Amino acid sequence: MTSKLSPFGAGAAYSRGIAFIDGQYVEATDAAVYDNINPATGEVIAQIEVADEVMVDRAVQAARKAGRGQWRLMSDDQRAEIMRRVAAGIEARFDDFLAAEMRDTGKPVSLASHLDIPRGAANFRVFADVMKHANESTTMTTPDGGRAINYSIRAPLGVIAVVCPWNLPLLLMTWKVAPALACGNTVVVKPSEETPSTALLLGEVMRDAGVPDGVYNVVNGFGGASTGEFLTNHPDVDGVTFTGETGTGEAIMRAAARGVRPVSFELGGKNAGLIFADCNIEAAIETTARSVFANAGQVCLQTERLYVQRPIFDQFVAGLKAKAEALKVGDPWDKSTTLGPLISQEHRNKVLSYYEAARQQGAETVTGGGIPDMEEALAGGSWIQPTLWTGLADDAKCVTEEIFGPCAHIRPFDDEEEAVALANNSPYGLASMTWTNDVSRAHRVASQLEAGTNWVNAWFLRDLRAPFGGSKRSGIGREGGTHSLEFYTELRNVCIKL
Q1: Is the domain of 449 the same as that of 493?
Q2: Which one of 279, 300, 398, 407 is the catalytic residue?
């Protein structure tokens, strides 16, 4: 295993994805490799090395050593200052991060430039001061009539395994890495095998910002029986944070049970939107189009189940159909492109299987349901049509299972009680969206919905200080602002008799 310089040039693609361990890019001469594919074109953009058990152990040991050294001993203010430099470093290399993210995901520049990269930098700034709100103290009377002071301290959890998804690679990775580092932990990141580039590029920014060697490490590879399993099973990993599908979360949870290690999970969703007849229907249609079709539906907070009060049902369906058909697929670098591809051919086949299942189960396809015609340069990409259905039963596959594509089923309802029951009729509980101009109804309905985040007359409106996470099969724990402290630190009590 040898070290090498950065695989990144100024805005240039890299030809080989390698690990970032202990402050260096490293490669193994005999490592297995796989093709990293641009989803928009189907072209191979890089060869990615799969980190074996030896390389994963090297990354974990580098993180453990760093966690016992300078990083842990820094003051909160010192760590916060370095994190601000990381944020500035991301912004200084905005074009490099944008190119890397777009090559990996195929998403339109209009989305990546306004969401993914800015939020990647913002996550470090938001969490830079998080530990300033961590301490508390109390006094007590002792059994002999004396007095004692109790105070709490938050110690870093240790080495955190950060296992990331492919849909918002930089945003969701930094959402975990930033609070972990703010609390004094060290990390080993396993990005999705589909989208490794920005995690690797961030290694350079970390190093240039003054993050000590070994604090931030990246290993590439697959999940089960590969890099991800080696990492989450490693006995020197002290906690695991993961965003992804529920089945993978269950497997990681079983691994984390050995050693009784804590986990923080944001898992699958089948999010509901409730559209009441008294809403601003134009605003509801406009926002719902984003909540269904943004990032080609590859957003954990996407709305896949829409329940519309009967008096406005036909008007809403027609309006959302028009929005779907106005979406433009095409070159991701064209600023007028509004719908990108799915992440891979494999994922497109999965989503198409749901399109077929909807037809077989009696759905009326309002729009879409297939593959769009693409120009020759993009014909090898994983493109799919935005799709809407009506007429499915409440227990139909496309109504109950997470699809993770640009699609939704729309069903009418009659009253508030029915709407809440329909929304809660799911094993998932990540997010919901309610549209109404009745303030009392807004509070009443939102408080009854079994989901971690419940928007009213909005979608994807995020305050990074607010608690974020899922209920039921959609996750464990809450992150965001000081809530992240509950996972990334261990709370200890000190009692001193006076």
Answers
A1: no
A2: 300
